[in-house]
Structure formats: structure tokens, C-alpha cells
Write a structure and sequence with these properties.
This protein is an alpha+beta fold and 244 residues long. The chain has three domains: 63 residues, Winged helix-like DNA-binding domain superfamily/Winged helix DNA-binding domain (Arc Repressor Mutant, subunit A); 50 residues; 98 residues. Strands 3, 4, 5, 6, 7 and 8 form a six-stranded mixed β-sheet that branches. It has a two-stranded antiparallel sheet with strand order 1-2. Helix 2 crosses helix 3. It is elongated, with a radius of gyration of 23 Å.
């Protein structure tokens, strides 16, 4: 059998959950053949899924198998911590924007997510939320030349922002001039639908604001920085008419 890495196992667990819910009874042997692993590996996977709270039933009779309770689903999301943090911050952003549509249950969803965190994780999430600011909607001129940043840029910026890590970027300004910089992403600013990173720029040795969609490339450097108070970035923030 092919030995899989941890990412492969996580993907297999996701597929197993879908199979066991949609296909009813499945034998361990059939699952092992479908996924190209041993029956012992599938048995360990099922044990881990049970430990995570998934209601997996087993029929030990002749021709029996295993299945996931069809009622399992809503209310039993098994989000990884970074995924839960992203969802919680997205809810906070939606609430701050005060959109009149689809907000009725956001407060309840947010409370349930927060309740699932340990006290230390709740503090960490609150610190992250305090570093995200909402401003007025971007002008039609700004929105007209908005482009979605590359996925790799978003991932690197996301990691650096959460970890307080320095980021090496290639940036193109409004005039089309490209520069290589190292920045410390202290805060994020949303002027819907445009995101900005409020950072300390090593090249200019001063606070600067960078439009995220103008970051052409980004890579974490492995070095970290200490978060500075918003007051030190006030000049960068002035004129943004912040709501929070």
C-alpha cells in the first residue's frame, strides 16, 4: 500500500465522512480498496473520526459495515482553529458593515463559535479582531481598477498577519512602478471591497499603507515583530473615516 502523508490523510478523512453519510453501510474492506490503503489504516481513521465526535455506527453481522448518522451535519462542523478564526472575523466584519440582509443569525453563530474556543484562544481571536478596521466604501474610481490578489499572496499575508511575521513583497504602486520591500503587517483595513494592509515598511523606515491587490508576490521571511499601537500609524489612517 502507498504510504500517505498527513495532508493526504486529512483529505481521506473528509472523503470518508462524505461517503459514510451518503452511501449508507460501507465495509472496511471496500473503503480500503477505494482509497488505496490497508484495512487497518481505515480502521484507525474510523477510530479517529469517532474520537472527534462523529456518530459512526457499526453493523457487526454478516455483510455488515460502518455508516455515519444521516442527521449528523449542521451544528457539528469540525473546523480547524484557523478556519474558525477566519469565519469569526468574517462575521465580525459583516456585523460592522451593518448589511441589512442575512444578519439575523450572525450573533448566534458568533456566540457558538466563541464558546467552542478555550479562554486563551478567545483572547487570541479578540486580539486579531482588534487589528481589523472597517472604513467607508471605496470610491467608484478605486473599484474600477480593483483586481483580485493572487491566492499565494493572500495566503502569505494571512499567515504573516496572524503570526506577526515580516513579509517580503513585490509591490506595484498606482503609477505602475514596482519595488521590493519588507513589511510588518500590523493592521488590516477594509474599504469595501478593497483591502489594505497598514504596515511598517523597512524600505522607507516608516509606516505605510499598501493596497492588497497591488501586492504582486509575497513570502514570509521567518522573522517576527512586536505589534505597535494604532496611534503610531495614525498618519497612514487619517482620511479613511474609520468606523472601528
Amino acid at each position: 500500500m502507498v504510504r500517505t502523508n498527513s495532508i493526504g490523510r486529512l483529505r481521506r478523512l473528509e472523503l470518508l465522512a462524505v461517503q459514510l453519510k451518503q452511501e449508507g453501510l460501507c465495509t472496511v474492506k471496500d473503503l480500503a480498496n477505494q482509497h488505496g490503503v490497508s484495512e487497518r489504516t481505515i480502521a484507525r481513521d474510523i477510530l479517529l473520526m469517532r474520537e472527534q465526535g462523529m456518530p459512526i455506527d457499526a453493523d457487526r453481522g454478516r455483510g455488515g459495515g460502518v455508516r455515519l448518522d444521516h442527521n449528523w451535519g449542521v451544528g457539528r462542523m469540525n473546523l480547524a482553529y484557523p478556519e474558525a478564526v477566519d469565519l469569526l472575523i468574517s462575521i465580525a466584519v459583516s456585523e460592522q458593515m451593518k448589511s441589512p440582509m442575512f444578519l439575523a443569525s450572525l450573533g448566534s453563530v458568533r456566540r457558538q463559535l466563541v464558546a467552542s474556543f478555550s479562554p486563551e484562544k478567545r483572547k487570541k481571536v479578540n486580539r486579531l479582531k482588534s487589528r481589523i478596521m472597517i472604513g467607508v466604501t471605496a470610491s467608484t474610481y478605486v473599484q474600477a481598477n480593483l483586481n483580485a490578489p493572487p491566492k499565494r499572496v493572500v495566503q502569505a499575508l494571512h499567515q504573516a498577519f496572524i503570526d506577526l511575521g515580516t513579509l517580503a513583497i513585490r509591490y506595484q504602486n498606482e503609477g505602475g512602478v514596482t519595488s521590493e520591500r519588507q513589511i510588518e503587517p500590523h493592521y488590516l483595513l477594509l474599504k469595501y471591497p478593497v483591502w489594505y494592509v497598514i504596515a511598517f515598511d523597512h524600505l522607507s523606515d516608516a509606516p505605510r499603507t499598501f493596497r492588497c491587490d497591488r501586492i504582486l508576490a509575497a513570502q514570509t521571511t521567518g522573522t517576527h515583530f512586536r505589534l505597535s499601537p494604532k496611534e503610531e500609524f495614525q498618519q497612514s489612517l487619517d482620511g479613511n473615516d474609520l468606523l472601528i
